[in-house]
Write a sequence for this structure.
């Protein structure tokens, strides 16, 4: 435990963000007084991610001479919830529902990922039928009681569950979204009868119509709750033993943060915790650069994730599946192949294309890349940790785009011979091609998959990628960003100051947030503005109460309101924001007009004469947390607790050509083979420094490739801007 601070001691001044990825664990430490930012990057420990958490924290804090008691806040991004579902490492769970609906999870939905795939197998329910139970009760669609709750049936169910030795129970009663009284009473009785068993009520995690989606959300929450709770308790214990007394927060899937205590109760809200942080960092950087429309591209060691930000606001969806199957070749997850959850999630396309993605030949002798990854253990062949399968990182090393001696600031040496051998033995020899040509093919196949992911979030949703800037980060992102921009005609690529730790920095630019939803199902022309105002006011009050229970201080609060709307008779809704201020008749009229416009953008048409429905209303209550002081870091220097600069990079007088520290041959297909490329150190660049391609820009946490015909310019906020030469 932390030691008591003396009388008159200075208040804590640091904020720490820790992001655990599939290959590396990143941490960012910000001094709120000076704005100085430090980063650290160490391999992830898949067996126990909390070990990697503490390794990188100790490297950055105590290794950098900082007293743990001076850290005010620790914000964590983690994939532990997602991994639990994907790997089948979920708690033994039971399911309780209304009499007659025991097979709800088995029936699921009438959709399949591939319409004509006769071999398709539906996802196996997280709760098998023998652990599904019914209780006697029934409400109608308006919430009126048709059959009173029979508490004796609940107690009998509790006895049956007790005999099955379960860790968690999910409850979803019919129409509990409109009247949760029966469901809350069932939860109360089960908690009394089953001490130590976690209980998740659907009315608390997803109070919306459509019983299967509500049930699936409650089941996912229940199945991962003991796993996440044990993990968070382990992290809490470890940081306390190291002397920290900081507020502990977790990134949510929808873009806010919440306390460890909240996350332990509602872990389904942190399913996409890690990927969301990178998008929020992109939002913050775009705001500093006064750019409203950007595409975020996050490529790490295991996956690549793409999101779209329009007008400074990321796209949020509630049509999300966890544990889905990747669609071969085009990126994304096949709809209907996973477990749906109805919580706000930043809309991302995620594919199995990362630095550790393995290249392989299929049964027809065709070269493929991913989705399987070498991960952190053993990692790519060039890591010298026993890996023998060729990866994208091995291919980049063979092409000269990675430095064998300067990777991770020189902390990790790469072996080109092992990379060449892996590509030769597993791919090139079987294809009858030389190693270099095969390495280039591996990189290009990965690029095509990632370009398709970029199209999915832009072209497929009515947006022209040429109207956006591409913000690229992750350890491998800057290696591929220039090529992806050229493939899609994106005019500008922006590389953040510390791209390899950018998601960890995003954890510190995110506010506390509580999302609440209510189903109302009313026609827009019949809804009373007063009723909407009252419903939103009640939800806001509940969100404010939740915010008051958080441990982290906030500077201000903000409330955002949304209506999920559709044309009468449609099956799915569009999320439409409401303008601030009291809700009056003109507010509803404006809402309908905005819906027609959104429908036109999403589907290419709208029908002004068709009646519209407001199905759900949603409120986000946000507690603003002070952003890290000063400007973003200007570069990355190697060494423990890498210091990234205390303030704004002073603008240079005009534009000056940066001087390379050396040259080496780098392969570019558009140049016909290997060409001499200038080598630059990122931390030596000042605002106005210009680099002509072909060039390699190296820093502690990442490597950036500037292709022939392009140039890079260092900006005043430490960013690197890549554009085509006129």
């Amino acid at each position: 435990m932390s030691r008591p601070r003396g009388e008159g001691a200075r208040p804590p001044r640091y904020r720490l963000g820790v992001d655990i990825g599939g290959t590396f664990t990143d941490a960012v430490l910000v001094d709120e007084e000076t704005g100085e930012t430090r980063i650290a990057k160490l391999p992830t420990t898949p067996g126990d991610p909390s070990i990697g958490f503490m390794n990188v924290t100790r490297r950055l804090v105590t290794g950098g001479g900082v007293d743990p008691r001076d850290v005010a806040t620790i914000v964590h991004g983690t994939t532990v919830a997602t991994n639990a579902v994907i790997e089948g490492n979920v708690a033994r769970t039971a399911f309780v529902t209304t009499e007659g609906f025991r097979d709800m999870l088995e029936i699921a939905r009438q959709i399949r990922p591939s319409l004509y795939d006769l071999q398709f197998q539906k996802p196996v329910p997280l709760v098998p039928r023998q652990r599904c139970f019914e209780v006697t009760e029934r409400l109608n669609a308006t919430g009126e009681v048709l059959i009173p709750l029979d508490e004796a049936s609940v107690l009998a169910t509790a006895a049956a569950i007790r005999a099955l030795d379960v860790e968690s129970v999910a409850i979803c009663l019919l129409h509990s979204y409109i009247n949760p009284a029966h469901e809350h009473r069932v939860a109360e009785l089960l908690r009394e009868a089953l001490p130590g068993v976690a209980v998740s009520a659907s009315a608390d995690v997803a109070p919306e119509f459509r019983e299967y989606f509500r049930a699936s959300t409650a089941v996912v929450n229940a199945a991962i709750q003991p796993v996440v709770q044990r993990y968070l308790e382990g992290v809490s214990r470890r940081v306390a033993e190291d002397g920290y007394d900081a507020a502990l927060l977790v990134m949510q899937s929808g873009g806010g943060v919440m306390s460890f205590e909240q996350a332990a109760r509602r872990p389904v809200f942190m399913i996409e915790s890690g990927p969301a942080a990178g998008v929020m960092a992109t939002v913050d950087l775009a705001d500093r650069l006064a750019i409203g429309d950007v595409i975020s591209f996050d490529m790490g060691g295991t996956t690549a994730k793409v999101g779209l930000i329009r007008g400074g606001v990321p796209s949020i969806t509630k049509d999300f599946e966890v544990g889905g199957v990747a669609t071969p070749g085009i990126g994304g997850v096949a709809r209907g192949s996973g477990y749906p959850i109805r919580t706000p999630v930043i809309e991302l396309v995620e594919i199995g294309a990362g630095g550790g993605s393995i290249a392989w030949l299929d049964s027809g002798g065709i070269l493929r890349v991913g989705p399987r990854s070498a991960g952190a253990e053993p990692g790519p062949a060039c890591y010298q940790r026993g890996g023998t399968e060729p990866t994208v990182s091995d291919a980049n090393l063979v092409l000269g785009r990675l430095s064998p001696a300067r990777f991770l600031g020189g902390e990790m040496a790469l072996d080109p011979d092992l990379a060449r051998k892996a590509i030769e033995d597993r791919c090139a020899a079987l294809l009858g091609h030389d190693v270099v040509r095969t390495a280039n093919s591996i990189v290009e196949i990965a690029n095509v998959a990632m370009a398709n992911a970029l199209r999915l979030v832009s072209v497929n949703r009515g947006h022209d990628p040429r109207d956006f800037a591409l913000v690229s980060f992750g350890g491998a992102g800057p290696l591929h960003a220039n090529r992806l921009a050229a493939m899609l005609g994106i005019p500008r690529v922006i590389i953040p100051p510390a791209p390899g730790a950018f998601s960890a920095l995003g954890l510190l630019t995110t506010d506390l947030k509580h999302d609440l939803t209510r189903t109302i199902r009313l026609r827009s022309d019949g809804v009373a503005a007063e009723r909407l105002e009252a419903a939103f006011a009640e939800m806001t009050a509940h969100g404010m109460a939740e915010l008051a229970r958080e441990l982290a201080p906030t500077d201000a609060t903000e409330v955002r309101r949304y209506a999920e709307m559709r044309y009468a008779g449609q099956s799915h809704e569009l999320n439409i924001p409401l303008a601030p201020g009291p809700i009056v008749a003109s507010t509803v009229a404006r809402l309908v007009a905005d819906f027609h416009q959104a429908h036109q953008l999403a589907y290419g048409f709208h029908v002004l004469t068709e009646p519209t429905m407001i199905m759900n209303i949603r409120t986000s209550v946000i507690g603003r947390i002070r952003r890290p002081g000063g400007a973003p870091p200007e570069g990355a220097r190697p060494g423990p607790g890498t210091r990234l600069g205390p303030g704004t990079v002073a603008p240079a007088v005009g534009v000056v050509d940066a001087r390379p520290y050396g040259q080496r041959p780098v392969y570019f297909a558009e140049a016909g083979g290997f060409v001499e490329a200038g080598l630059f150190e990122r931390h030596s660049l000042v605002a106005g420094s210009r680099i002509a391609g072909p060039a390699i820009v190296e820093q502690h946490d990442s490597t950036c490739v500037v292709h022939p015909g392009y140039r890079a310019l260092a900006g005043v906020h430490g960013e690197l801007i890549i554009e085509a030469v006129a």
User: Anything to note?
Assistant: Residues 1-8, 630-653 have pLDDT under 50 and may be disordered. The two ends are 60 Å apart (CA to CA). The first strand starts at residue 14 and ends at 20.
